[in-house]
Amino acid sequence: MSVEKLSDVIAILNEYDNNPSKLIPILQKVQHKYNYLPEDAMTFVANSLGIPPAKVFGVATFFSHFSITPKGKHIIKICDGTACHVKKSEGIINAVQNKLGLNAQKHTTDDFNFTLECVSCLGACGIAPVVVIDEEVHPQMTPEKVTALIDEVAKKEAQNAGK
Amino acid sequence: MPANNLKEIKDNYDKQYANITKKIIICAGTGCVSSGSMKVFEAFKTELAKRNLNVCLKISEGCREIYLSKSGCQGFCQQGPLLSIGDTFYTKVKDTDVVELIEKSVLKDEVVERLLYKNPADGKQYKTTAEIPFYKKQTRFLLQDCGRINPEDINEYISNGGYESARKAIAEMSDAEICNFMLDAGLKGRGGAGFPTGKKWDLTRQSKGHKKYVICNADEGDPGAFMDRSIMEGNPHSVVEGMIIAAKAIGADEGYIYVRMEYPLAVTRIKTAVREAREIGILGKGIFGTKYNFDINIMEGAGAFVCGEETALIASVEGARGMPRPKPPFPAVSGLFGKPTVINNVETLANIGKIMAVGAQEFRKMGTKNAPGTKTFALTGHVANTGLVEVPFGTTLREIVNEIAGGTTGEDGSPDQEAFKAVQIGGPSGGCLTKEHLDMPIEYDTLKAAGAMVGSGGLVVMNKTTCMPSIAKFFMGFTQNESCGKCVSCREGTKQMLSMLTDITEGKADDKTMHTLEDLANVVKVSSLCGLGKSAPQPVLSTLRYFRNEYNEHIQNKNCPAGACKALAKYTIDPAKCVGCTACKRACPVGAITGEVKKPHAVDKAKCIKCGACMKACKFNAISVGG
């Protein structure tokens, strides 16, 4: 593990007094920093807290928010809760998968620009179906609207890359 | 200012507020923000500043003229962004409307009619929320201040009578008195199971030990439910106040709010509320100037539906996988870190301060004898008005669907009373209700008898384009995914049920499938440890109970009456309507359509891949799907 990464993780652990009961908030902070949970960081957290690495791995794989593989730069969350589902969110999921060449097993694009996550409910049922791209909530989506949004993000990304 | 003098805070606030002549409230709930309400807010700020008007964003010393305030969720999400200027209520406001609104509605007392709410059913316009049927038919007891006050200003909460109940409980009442009061009031837990709150508190109060905890369960994981989110966003201090009273009732000095990370705005608001309360001595050491200590930690959940179950939630706060354990011992005896713990849901806690303010007798006047008070519901699906509603227990489904929600809508989104098919209530643990239940009063017991449950309060109205076996499959997919894997019957049972439901919707099932499915559902129901497994078969059992014919159609005739199951779709061209324009033939990617120009075409069912391209291409409505 790099010195820089090591000092980041130590700082997070100190913030929670190396308290094993704070494992979840610690992992949340680590994930926030690296956008996933690197294996070496998890092992280091386990050793520092005096708990088996298997326990940390167990917690990391139990909760859907944690990811042990790197995620894309832009996160697209499509709500497939009941309200969104009856308002045909399935069509939106298919449209995004087709657009980005993803499927039920593959969630991240090869260039690591996009990760697609299907979530159970974002609590914005009054404006279903809902799509969240990088924390911004988009109401009453359709397959056409969502692909246009992705085009916009991709265009910005290409512009930034060109600079 | 110290919190032992709430009256002083209130008087001070009222004095500062006295010079305000116009109040503008912009809804800043998740729904309205996503429809662009913050752009409207910024536009107001800029345009008011251009006109050199006195504007204040938070009531403080020297405020006069205009108060521009953000509120929490006002409930009428579909019509957002929502805005009120004085009493006048505007819907679907855009930033480009702001100049006109300022010139007419703020500076003169004119009304901008085109932005008033128009009832889709009769085209009538309404000026105030008090007149709009969506609000008029509700009883907003709990949500009274939600969407009216600024959720990020503790002084505004206090000036509306807030924290007076908590002060009274801390300074003037004994723990037993508070428990007895709650028993008199008869409040039942709003998280789903409906356990009497007073009883829960009294059991924890009697448990021995110096260290006790209060946990607020804000892990609202039911898909299709957002009541708790709205309360936390709209009136977070009411939750904090409820927790303080609960703490005194059981003798706790520490509390946790376990909130879903999928609700970023709710997390921010509740954090602000806790900080504000700490700053004026309502939380922390020696609260309200007494010797009593109580403080609140906030923990963000990491995404697991099963953590709504109390023992799983406790495991997760302790830093472990969120898996439930057998009860007893109940959390009242041995909960968080082995200490006596009370766990209440957001809506339950938000009720408490209000109930103490009005008194137990007054509270009991609402609702029914067995279920006093009101319940909030997240009203969604195929209805004209979706949003957050609050009604007394005992209200009928018909009143909610037809009067508040403005009736069922058809496929094109316009009102169509005939389109009503079912209401799904209680999420993945609940069940479906049909036309015959429309006049049944909604209450814990009546719903249970009908094979559904109050649950946390998700209420999804479904029209005739919804296929019931598919809905059962949808919920089973959800519970199968969320099963923690501890009990074999739930882990394997949900998987098998899901595969049988998939067979049914894909036309691969035979007569045996339905019996096996029903048998297995009953096994999983009785042999799982926690609520998730016990109630996982509920959507299957309730749809089998009320829509058995629809299952039979799928199995015996390989036909989906709702036309929703793609694998069973049968595209046919009505020769009477077909003019032979060849549009469908050209749209078909597999060449399954044959026919000559200007003569009726036909679909070759063997070649058809059921993509629906022909139906979209047809301009004469000649192609139909399903039987």
CATH top level of the largest domain in chain A? Answer: Alpha Beta
Q: What structural class should be given to the helix and strand makeup of chain B?
A: alpha/beta
Global shape of chain B: globular
Mean pLDDT of chain B: 93
Q: Tell me, what is the CATH class of the largest domain in chain B?
A: Alpha Beta
CATH architecture of the largest domain in chain A: 3-Layer(aba) Sandwich
Secondary-structure element series of chain A: HHHHEHHEEEH
- DSSP strand count of chain B: 20
How far the N terminus sits from the C terminus of chain A, by CA atoms, comes to 32 Å
Shape annotation of chain A: globular
Share in β-strands of chain B: 5-15%
Query: Structural class given helices, strands, pairing of chain A?
Result: alpha+beta
What CATH calls the topology of the largest domain in chain B is: Rossmann fold
Q: How are the strands of the largest sheet of chain B arranged?
A: 2-3-1-4-5
CATH superfamily of the largest domain in chain A: Glutaredoxin
User: Low-confidence parts of chain A lasting 5 or more residues at pLDDT below 50?
Assistant: none
- Give the oligomeric state of the chains in this entry, treating copies of one chain as homo and distinct chains as hetero: heterodimer
The whole-number mean of residue pLDDT values of chain A reads 92
- Rg from alpha-carbon coordinates of chain B: 27 Å
Put simply, the count of helices of chain A is 7
